[in-house]
Amino acid sequence: MSAQGVGTLAGTAPEKSTGEIPDNRLPPPVPTIRLTRVLDRIFVLMRNRFWMIYGITFVVYVPFFFYNLLMRQLNVSMMQGASPLFMRSEMLLAVAVGAIVFIVAWTFIWPLGTMAATTALARSYLGRPATVFGSYREVLGLILPALGMMMTVGLFVTLGSLMCLVPGVYLMLRFYVVYPALAVERRGVFASLDRSARLMSGNYWQVLCVSICVGCVKFALAYAITLTGGALFGGSGVVDVVLYSASQFVGQLFVAPMDFIAAVVVYFELREVKEGLDMEIMARDLARRLAPGFALDGDP
Question: Which end of the chain is more exposed for a tag (fewer CB within 10 A), N or C?
């Protein structure tokens, strides 16, 4: 019997190799999120939890009101050719102290607010109750990790943007869900960065489209509120200055939570399509990671 390849019947010609990899050896496709589903869930979550979300964000953005007030007074005074009150010599010390307090407060309030909003939104996304004060109390221990996260991500994205716009956008997308990873899974800074990178793999274009859509909505709303405020309160009187600053504050406050909401929705959508976890399992996992005083109803 003539020598033939393994598995080749006698009297038949051996199959010729086509050089192609059989289908069963091809890597499986990377699971991806659906843009329409993500956008729908973003606006549903925003509508259903409107007051809770803005109650959390209000605390974070209060310093912006005073910043807007100072800037508006400066602009009005400069246009009138006068020295604004807060630039007179007797006020310089108070302004310097106020600026230091503002910077220190903002340094800690912003990461705390980010974590509180992310945790509250995670609860809401999973159909669980959440409150403004309860959300802040849950994340008190995450201030320093969140601050480290902000500095690290900001440094990477800034350096990438300085090199070229494309690396900056890539890094921004790579770290898109770092805050949900930190708030929900209680990971460290670098572990959250790695977690975000792994979840985002294969979904950069989808999340970029989400970011563009959310950004366009934010710009349109903020511009409309700012334009309305300028038209109604464009005078130089004290009341007009205060009301104009308040309108700017409302515009910033109204659009700010959209970024938090988008990140949370994308995070859970990625976990669903990549890890096959349903909402009930993720809700139980979230409950186990939260403080004991905030255990979910029905959990052991």
Answer: N
